[in-house]
Every structure is written in structure tokens, then in C-alpha cells.
Amino acid sequence: MIINKLKLTNYRNYDNLDINLNEKLNIIIGKNAQGKTNILESIYVLALTKSYMSVNDKNLVKFGCNYSIIEGEVKYHDYLKKFKIKISDTGKHVLINDKDIKKMSDYISNLKVIIFSSENIHMLKEGPGVRRKFLNMEISQLSLKYVKILMDYNNIIKQKNEYLKLNNINMDYLSILNNKIAQLSVEIFLFRKDFIESINKILSDIFFEIMGIDGLKIKYISNIDFYDNKEIMIDKCIEKLNRYNEKESLYKISLIGPHRDDFIFVLNDKNVSLHCSQGQLRSIVLSLKLAEVQLFSNKTGESPILLLDDIFSELDSEKKNNLIRYIKDNVQIIITTTDINMIDEKLVKKASVFIINNGKIFPGK
Hints:
- There is one protein chain.
- 45% of the residues lie in helices and 24% in strands.
- The chain is of the alpha/beta class.
- The chain folds into two domains: 1-112 and 302-365, P-loop containing nucleotide triphosphate hydrolases (Rossmann fold, 3-Layer(aba) Sandwich), CATH 3.40.50; 126-301, RecF/RecN/SMC, N-terminal domain (Glutathione S-transferase Yfyf (Class Pi), Chain A, domain 2, Up-down Bundle).
- β14 and β15 (360-363) form a beta hairpin.
- α3 (118-125) packs across α10.
């Protein structure tokens, strides 16, 4: 898929922005704090209805304005779709081909994007919630079913947590909730397990090509036990949830389920967040993103849009050249940089170049 046109109104530092994008490679140049990253973020928001950064929706609206609008025209193999999202005090409204979409779950997964930014590197160092958000956002782009299951799960966990705060707890009612939670938990677990196993089949080879180091993989850490039989998994999950009824009643919060899961990157069986340098962590996350591009293409038949925020600033020449091998012609790429000289000449020759200055965009060549 290709995003041909992007239009922003009252978004971050932009009053209005209207840009036609190259279907192959786009390079956006500008000094820091001029709005380069905001363009990438807006495409991500257009796809997933929320920022990849930990910000409130209100922060996406230009200061002093009441609303923000992101619009994009996207080309698939043989048809076009127009996407629009409006953010205001009344909430978010999303449209596809000028038709209101009532459920966010029906909107997400239509437009697929993969983003690499410094925020991704923080994922390795911060708490499990950040990594769960990553898993949920990526898998949601691949499966509408996952989006709906996750929403149902979050709703029933919220219901359970509210019930646990009451003074008089009925254990039989908790068990009824646990039955439903167990079914949804196993579904979420299996989706995440499949995603991580699929990534692991690609990840190590890409990291080896970029860094020359073998043995990188992701390890999923769950409080749900895996069995080959799905029904057995559900039964065992119910048993475990019920064993925690009294403890959860005491702590007044749900302690078991995929909302407590985590994952780590391991390199030769060592946790990378404890043993790798900042530069290595950057290359690990970049390898993950490139693995995702292949995975999305394999699973959907459509290449996602690849957004690379200031990717070349900390890579030496050898690693830049290794990276170029994975930048395929069938993937639309949008790169930001403060200095075009950081980007290989081979890439620049293929690219459309734009210059950003104080929320204004100009053609670079």
C-alpha cells in the first residue's frame, strides 16, 4: 500500500500541510523541532487512531485550536481509499471514503504502518505496559479479530476490577467472570505467541546482516500456561484465575491475564536491556521493524508503509550499507533527517526530498 496524499489541518505545529508523496522513497529534511516527526506521527495516527508516543489526544491539536484533522489517500493494488480522522473535545471521528465508521475496531487494520523512532528504543528499558502496547498495536494491524477480542477483554477486566473494589465479594460471580476472561485470555495469548514466533523466524538473520552478531530473539513472558490443546489451556486458565480469587479480593485488582504479560529481547540468552549498549539497542529495534515489514507483507499480501525517524544519525557507513539491502523497492518509505548527507547517495537519487521549516514544507529538489 502507498499513501499518495497527506493533508493536515491544525495538527501539532501545522496550520495546514498538503503533500504528495513518492510511492517509493521520501526524505524529509529539517532542523530539530521544525515538525519532521509530526508528519510521521500523523500517518501513524491516521492508521491506528492514536500516537505511538505516550501523549494525550489533545496534544495532537495545534495550540489554540479546537480540532485537528488528518486526511490521507491510500493506494492499494487496484483501488484507492480515503482516510480521515478528526480529533476534538468531543472525541475522535474516523471516516473511510467519506463514510463515518462507528467502531474503531472496524477502522483499525485498514492502513498498515511500521514506525522506527527513538520512542521504540525506550520500549526496551521501560515497564511491561509499553511492550504490551507495542504488541497490541502491531497485531491489531494484522487482525480485526484480535482488535475485537482485546476490546472485549479490556472491558471485562475493567468490570472485574470495579467489582473487586466492593466490600462484599461473591466468589461465585467472580468465577463466572473468570470463565469468560479465560477464554479471551487464551485467544490473546495465542495471537501474541504466533506473532512473536513469526518475528523470531526473521529477526535473527536481519540483525546478523546489520550488526554481524547472531542469536537475537524475543522471549514472551506470560502467566498463562501453554498446552497444545486450546480447551485444556482454557480449563487450566480458569483454574488459575479461581485460585487467585481471594488474593485479588484482598488487593482489589486482577492479577492474572495477558494484561500482565511481558516480553524481552535476548541475545545469546542474555537480556539485551541489561547487557547491550545504546547503539546496539537501536540496531535491535531497527531489526525488529524490518522483520515486521516482511511479516506484514507475508501475512497480508500488502507491504506496510515504513516510517523511519532520524534513522541514520547513529549508524556508521557499514551498517548504513547493510540496512540498504533491506529497503525494498516495493515498500513505501518516509525518512526524516537533520542532514541529507547522513543518507546514502543511492537512496537520495531515488527519493522525493522535502524541506521542513517552522511548520512549512518545500520541495527539496
